[in-house]
Structure formats: C-alpha cells, structure tokens
Input
Amino acid sequence: MTRPIADLLEEWEPVIGLEVHVQLATASKAFSASAIQFGAPPNSLTDPVVLGLPGSLPVFNKRVLELALRLGVATESKIRARSRFARKHYFYPDQPKNYQITQFDEPLCEAGHLDLILDKRIKRVNLTRIHLEEDAGKNTHVGAVSHVDLNRAGIPLVEVVSEPELTSAEEAAEFMRALHRLVRWLDISEADMEKGQMRCDANVSIRLRGEDRLGTRTELKNINSFRFVQHAVDHEIARQLRIVDSGGRIERETRLWDAVAGQSATMRTKEEANDYRYFPDPDLPPLVVDGALMGNVLKSLPELPTKRFVRYQTELGLAADDARTIISDLELAGFFDKAIATRAKSGKAIANWMLTELLGALNADGKDVGQSPMSPATLAALVGLVEDGTISGKIGKEIFEESYRTGEAPAAIVERRGVQQISDEPALWEIIDRVVGANPKQAESYAAGKDSLFGFFVGQVMKETQGRANPVMVSDLLRKRLGR
Amino acid sequence: MAAEYWSVAETAQKVASGEIKAANLVIALLARIADKDRELGAYLAVDEEGAIEAAAEIDRKRAAGEPIGPLGGVPIALKDMLVTKGLATTAGSRILAGWKPPYDAHVVEKLRAAGAIIVGKNNCDEFGMGSSTERSAFQMTRNPWDAMRVPGGSSGGSSAAVAAGLCAASLGTDTGGSIRQPAAFCGVVGLKPTYGRVSRYGVVAFASSLDQVGPIARTVTDAALVLEAIAGFDARDATSIDAPVPPLAALATAGVKNLRVGVPKEYFEGAIDAEVRAAVDRAIEVLRDKGAEIVNVSLPHTSLALPAYYLVAPAEASSNLSRYDGVRYGLRAEATDLLDLYRRSRGAGFGPEVKRRIMVGTYALRSGYYDAYYKKAQQVRALIKRDFDEAFTKCDCVITPTTPTAAYRFGAKTTPVEMYLGDIFTLACNLAGLPGISVPCGLTSENLPIGVQLMGKPLDEQAILRAGVVIEKTCGLGDRRPGGF
Amino acid sequence: MPALTRKEIDEIALLARLHLEPDEAERMQHEVGAILDTFTALAAVDTDGIAPMTHAVPMDLRLREDVVGPSLSVAEALAGAPKRDGDLIVVPAIIPGSE
Output
C-alpha cells in the first residue's frame, strides 16, 4: 500500500543542498596559457600542463581570481586574504594528472549567500563556500572503449556550495536560475548549460518535519539543465519518500541522473568512496588577495539583480513580473536604467513600452537589447510624448515603429506628421456635436440603455480625427453630451 | 692537461679564441664516451647528431663573428630527469621508456642559449629515488674510482660522467642530496642551489617542495659558471624566485677572510667513518688558516630530518607520480578494464623503490592520517628551518660531512632504511630550502673520494662557493683522476 | 603507530593503483612497516602552534595575465599516447562510477 507523495510530504520535509560548477569566461586556462574554445577539434587545445606531462608546472591565471572575487563579493562572502590550492587525487582518464587542483580547507570564499526570488518574496540561501578549481577533460563512452578529449581539461571553474537549506525541487531549480542570472549579470561566465558551462550536483535528504537533524543524503550527479534539476530532485525526493514509506532506510550513495530515462542509478556507495588524499599543492604558493585587487573588483561590480528587483518595485511601482523580467538580463536592466534616468516618474510606462514594443521589435529582427537601434533616451522621450498627452498611445505605437526603423526623433516625427493629440475642448465639442448629430438613431438607442453603443461614438470621433483625439477627454465629453 | 679534463671556463675560452673547434672537441668526446661508457654506464642516451650539429653551429657563429655565449662549445650532459625536446627522457623508469617530450626544460633552454652542447642523458635512480643509482630501471653505473662501488645517487650517472671526463659538467637534480652525495662519492663538485633559484619547469617531479636542479662539475668555479647560466626567474614555475643572479664564478674566488663558518655539533655526533671525519676536520682547519671565523653552532632538530624527509618526499612523490597511468604517454599494460589498466601499467612500470615510496606517501596522505603524518612532518620541517635561521645569526654558512662514509660496494645496503640512513647529512638542506655544495676534500686509504658539505643562507650561494674554492685549492683532489679514465 | 596489516597494504595499493604480486605485497608489508617505524620520532615532537612548512621558501602566488599562448599540435599532444582512435585517446570502457 503506497501513500501519495503529497501525503508523505505533509509528514516529511525534503532538504536539498547544491554544488554548482561554473566555468569562468577567461581566454586561457586556469593554470596554463592554452586557449579555451568550445567545439574545437579534439585534443587541439592542450600544452604540457594540460596534458600533465612530466616536468610541467601550473601557473595561475589572474583573471580567474578577479572573476571569482566578483562572485564572492556579490554573494557577500568572506574573502580569505590567503587561500590555498590543494590536490584532490582520483584516477580517471579525463583527469590528466590524476589529481585535480582545487581548494580544500582554505577556500577563497566562505559564508556568503544567494537570494532567490520566489513568487513575490525573496529567500536567502546561505553558501558554505565558493572555491576555485580546474575542469576535467571529456570521456565519451563508445562500446567497449572510452574516448578521451582533453580540450576542456584545465578550464577554470568556481564551485558554489550551498548550505542544505532548499526545501523543494522548485527551490533547487530557482537556486540554479538565481546563480545563472548572477554569474551572467556579473559577466563572469556565459553559464550555457548546454555547453556544460554550468553543472550541478544535488545532495538530497528527507527528515520528519520538526526534526533538526539531517537525514542520510544521496548525491545526485550530472544535472545539466534547470528542468533536469527540478526533475532529478523531485524524482529523488519521491524515491526516498517511497523507501521510508515502505519501512526501508536511505543508503548514503552517489547516484547518476540519466536525463533521457528520467531516472537515477547508483554510481557508488559510501563504502566504495574514494580517499582523495588532499594536501596543499607544493607547486602553488598561497593565493593572496590584496587591497588593490579588491578595490578593482569592488569598483567594477554592478548593482546586484535582487537589489534592483526590490528597487524597481518599491521606487518605480513596477509589477513583480516586469521587475523579474528586466533583471533577468544585465543589458536589459541597463537599458531600462538609462531610460528611466531621463524620466524617473515614468518607470512603469517605460517598462511597459520596453517589454512589449521594443522587445517585440527586437525579437522580430533577431536582435538583443544590446543591438537596439533605438536608444534608451529615445524610448523615454516617446513615452514622455504619450504621457503628457501630446500623442495618443495608439499614435505612439506608430511613432515608435517609425522611429525604431528610421532613427528619427519621435517629437520630430510627430511634428512632421502633424499627429499631435487633440486635447482642445471646444474643438472636441465641435466634432462630438457633429458625430452625434449625424447619428440620431444610435444616440436614441444609447439614451434608451444600449450601453454598447458608447464605443461606436468613440470610434466615430476617432475616425473624424484620424485617431488624434485625446481618448480620455473624448470619453468624458461624450458622456456629458449623450447624457449618461 | 688532456681536453677531456679541461674545465668549463678553459673549454669556453679555447673555443671562443678559436684554439679548438667545438666540432672537433665534441667528436673526440663522443668517441671517448663510446669507448669508456660501455664499462661505466653513465649515459642512458647520447645525442650524437644533436651534439655535432650544435657544435657546428657554434663554430659557424664564431667564424661569422657572432656571440657564442658564455658556455659556447662546452659539452654538458643532463640527468635524465630533465625533459629534452625530441630526445627520449625516462627519469630512469620503465614507465617512461621511449617517451619523447614535445618541449625542453627551462634549464635546457638556458644551456642551449648559453652555447652549451647537450651531449646526452645521464643514468639515475628511478625518478631520483635512491642513493646509489642501483635503482635505475635500465643499467648500473659504476663509480669511476672503483668499478665495484656505487657512484652514489640519484644523480650517479651525472657524477660518474663528470669524474670520468665524459662531459665538462652535468646537470643533476637534488631532492634530498641527489647532487651532493654522488658528487662526494665520485670526487667532483655538486651544487644544490637555493630552492627557487633555478626553474623546475621541465624537471620530472619527485617531491615538488624539495626538488632543485644544480650543476655537477669538476671545480667549484665550473659549478658556479654553470649555475650562472641556468639560474634566474622563470614565470613558468610559480616557486621560482624573482631575484638577480650575481656573478657567482667571479665572487667565488674572494677567499674566506672574515667569513663565519658554523660547525653544527649534531652533524659530528653520529657514526661517521674516521677517515671522512678527519678529512672534514682538516677542511675546517684550512678555512680557519685562510681567515675564516669558525664558530660552534647547534641545529637541535637534525635527527628529525630523516623521518620528516622520508614522509614529505614520498607523500609528494605519490601525488606527482599518479600521472603515470598508461593513458597519455608511457608504458601501458594489457588490461581488461580501466582499473586493471591503471594497476597493471603502474605495477609493471615502476620499480620496487618507487612503489615503496608511493605506498608510504599514499599511506600518509589518507584522510585521518594526514595530520599525524604529513602535516606533522611539515611542522617538524618548520622547526628544522628555524634551527638554521637561528644558526645563521651566528655564521654565514655551516660545514658538515656530505656523507657518513665514502662510496660503498654494490649491494651493500640491503634494506631501504639502511639506504636512507646514508642520506642523513644532506636532507635538512632540502627541507629548509638552502643552497648546499659538496666539495672533494681528500681520498681515503682505499683511494675513494671524500666530500665536505657547505650549506648557506637562502640566495647566498656566494658564501658556500667562497669556502668551497678555498677547500678545493688546499685539500681538493688536484690533478688526481680515477684510474683508467 | 602499529605495523601494517596485509589488508591495509592491499587497500593502499588499490588507492595508489599499484598492482602488487603476492610476494611483492608481503615484502612491502615489512618494508613499509619498517619505514613507518622511523616516523615514531616525529610524534614525540611538540609542534603546537607551529605552522606546517608547505613551501621551502616563503612566497605568495604570482599571477599570470590571462593571455593565450600556443597549444601543442594534436600530433604532438598525442605522440606518446599508447592507444588512439584518430584524434582521441582510447581507454577501456569507463562504466560510470566504476573507477
């Protein structure tokens, strides 16, 4: 007899911690000058260091440190003034030296946090650590043999380790999204999961609600998309719930997620666990972060996405969804900030125009916001024309299209086309009188209670004015004229 | 004096002046190697073609009036721990048999740039792990002074080749005495520079925090000249020191007036062969006679150098040697699966001493053992270094025997621990990262060379070179050469 | 520090990926045990508050500018590889997690 998962979740609480690897966007590898390039011919991006040839020695790339520090500062981590590289030993064909250069007991960053946007609230997830390490090459399984390509070996990584504070697969996926957004925002990684530039292992356990102690955890490896994070974690939570429901015990083990099959399988149990024999790498003296370097990092750091998310809502009155969309991309947020800089009171309207008209047009052209032919100031000016009643919203869209296409200033287009909105009350009275006079039957029917005819009169007035009549005034005056 | 025993300086001068053509010198040397080395076994590979070509290039440059470099035309050999582009590099191990590196070690580039002719690769204990060169996977090297005795190790091939006049100098590597001890056994000069003085880029790693490249030569000045050529900052080695290299050969002959030489009592308390003891005492007296100030110092943690070293070195070695797996290069055994491939390739490729050290190192680095072993040893290492810091407030360098005895017979040391005990005087120098030199200071009654060791402050190779020149002049071997060479 | 058991030798040999013949393993048990014995002197040393000396000369890590240097040609990179398939290195099948 099995109970539904939803029932079991009343009783049990999932606890999830993530370990996320993110490749840093450097030109050369972490410990040698060999180039980094996705999709290069196999084994074409190596040198003695990458191949682990006898006599080769690692030399650390400064850019790796700078990029990692951005993430450390952005997550408000404690930055270790002297951190250390260690060797982690395990034999595997994609690991040329059969040890990985990583950080062990003296990592670069500790005790930071990452803010997740859940519905309308923000959840702060603590980060145990962020440390530096080198990526491995790639093994491909082909029948009875495996092929080894070492191009990826030595690419710099940060490993971001969360505290076990996530309580659902949705939160786990949101953690990934938040980290993805952040590393792109900070311009430290493309974090393209399809290219393996961001990868995730998840530690999953369950415990009775109210219990403080963590349950036995399993480690899920090889999770390579946001969707898979949610699937894999959900699947694992359900697997564990079923085990405890049928009176079983959770085994400490490492499981490999198979995205195609949509299930996980045991990779190794604790007894088979390796002994990594960590020790400080004697080839690499301690990594020192000095004040000058920190100063540069702090100077180059943009305002963080969650901060802006809050600011857009509280200061500009944006809807949470719009705010979230804008912060999903640093360039978009930058465009928006430049636009509102010239017209702060129109934040909401600018957001609307940017997210619908501008993104729509860019989308149709296959461009991103960085390639926009319309500047933020131009968009703000256009919104200004609509807001101060110079033109109607409908005309505004036409002006937008023309300005987007030709680059001409909206005010100039309005002037040239003579499409200024008619807000002159006597002029509007004249037109309304004419329209009502020409349609006596409709006026009668409306007076008799046929409300839907109101739109007809608005339409007639607009037609008379080629859409230039101020719609708010038209509606106001029409009501007065028609008597209801 | 016959050309084969010309000093480095002499050879360079004669080539530069045109008194002899580099090509002729090299051809004669190659013939001598072909003749003498069959018995001696100092070379694993001789690069005849490369050497003749390089010599011809030196001659061409000279004829054209181009600079030929400070070591122009000087034939120099390399311990097979140094990586040479296109020339097989084995580190004395079967696991690397046949491997031809795609690059040159930093020191090899430097030697070539200085005009030296690379003659070939010298035999050594496998991965530098040994004190007799008996641990080479390929051949035995005999001591030129007594064919029944070991040349020392691990740079035994280098020392034997230099002593037997089969090259002007050779580069060795020294992790715990591997330059100084064989130099002492073969009656030549062996210089281990300050850690970081010479780039380790392209040096097959044994224990990364201890390894250092240095010259083995027939005179102290020669060793200084070669060190000048290979020393200096290299960005490819993160432990390379960015400090200027002084004109060491010129400074070496400054004498010892007012030089404070410490005699650490702990190095004279244990079992030392009486003749060795007497020779070292004589060297100390000579220094005093020539104006040095002899002071008694203490290095209280000396006896701990042996256990600390035999923990640190194997631990680092077990890590460094994990790359030899039969996947990307080197020996690969037939295997049914991946685990089998690793185990069989490494089982077949490594010799017994290397396996032992990998086992010890792996044991010590396991989680739960790390603190009690590796970390503890590194703490004791800090105490050993502190001893030297303290002693160097009273003196500029210290003097000790290089080895407790002169060269022993093949097979004399039967257990690993017995072999390790032969290294007791040379280990601390590496642990503390200091420069050290072994200089011949006499012969035993059995006509075997004795070496005296000098250790200096970091980056102060000058002091030990100065003392070395004085000892060499007064109690060195002079023109005495091993019989048959 | 106790002498080594044969089981420990086998475990360490597995960690180190060293195949040892039975007689080799037995010899190793004695020899490695004897070497470990020499380490007992260290345990007696008071090292409280002494920082482990991980590097022979104290220095900070030098940083390299992020500039691309030459890569080896594929031919050079794979010249030593005992088994290849085109431009890939070949090893016996890796069963995920088996190694």
Observations:
- The first helix of chain B runs from residue 8 to 17.
- Residues 4 and 303 of chain B are 41 Å apart (CA to CA).
